[in-house]
């Protein structure tokens, strides 16, 4: 009992000498046979004192008691910062977050093209093209021959598959996975440069044949019209300036009127997006101005993309302009901004 008191007294004196002057007394620690020693042995079997001898760091004033060192080590490890994730894991996370952000932005658009490329026999008709059309927007697309305007519309409507890139409609519909018929039924209508109408039928019959919904030609011609259908046809004829020609055979229309009739046939399908290719080619000046007014009216209720070379007509539309060159966007903005761009003047307007 006396020997124990002497040993304890010597240990206290050594501890006091090892502490800096004025330091607070160390907290009481469990004995060497307590939980701390047991924990140290269970995590590799090396006592904390051996770790200190091998260079393990210990704060100034820490006790030399093995149990004390073990507890200090455990506290230090708990305070260490978390190990950084593997760089590849960080890269995957960044890509995922970027993809989610792009997805949110894409869902707010009607038409979304990103990084679209298409080659024919080594020639890149479309080269990393990115284009966004908002809901309810009308956009004019200009550019020299061979700029990729027609190929772009072919890709949007499913006639051509891109080699790479994203083409989304209405946020989440991947158009690269659908054919022309399916895309048309989704709400994308396309008018080609040369009007395609049923010349042996009247203007009204052309509209009726084009009304949305499954129906054969015979059913469309012989069935009795209901009131909503009559109202729909009347509204389209009024919009396309053809009310007075409703009983006229399409073959007897002027070139401009045939263009309007085909636009009316597209409206009968009730699309969300109209792609119109050079609608005023071959029109008189009066027809050109009337077509600009017609498209502006249509754009009040749906999105319209107009491909055109006639700069006077584009100015009449008064919309945002995108100039394509060699399959990419060369310039974009108001017509004044685009037409003043030196690059546009060099490759297109200056010719």
Q: What are its keywords?
A:
four-stranded antiparallel β-sheet; single chain; 351 residues; elongated; alpha/beta; six-stranded mixed β-sheet; 44% helix; Rossmann fold; 17% strand
Description:
With 351 residues, the chain is an alpha/beta fold. It has 2 domains: 31-80, no CATH class; 94-349, 3-Layer(aba) Sandwich (Rossmann fold). It has 15 helices and 10 strands. The chain has a 6-stranded mixed β-sheet, with helices on both faces. Strands 2-1-4-5 form a 4-stranded antiparallel β-sheet, with helices on one face. α10 (227-239) runs antiparallel to α11 (255-268) and α12 packs parallel to α13. The protein is elongated. The model is unreliable at 26-82 (pLDDT under 50).
Provide a quick synopsis of the model:
The chain is an alpha/beta fold and 351 residues long. It is 44% helix and 17% strand.
How is the topology of this model organized?
Layout: H1 2-18, H2 35-42, H3 48-53, H4 66-79, H5 87-107, E1 111-120, E2 123-133, E3 138-142, H6 149-156, E4 164-169, E5 173-174, H7 180-186, E6 188-191, H8 203-210, H9 217-222, H10 227-239, H11 255-268, E7 273-277, H12 285-298, E8 303-307, H13 311-317, E9 320-325, E10 328-333, H14 335-339, H15 342-349
Parallel strand pairs: 3-8, 3-9, 6-7, 7-8
Antiparallel strand pairs: 1-2, 1-4, 4-5, 9-10
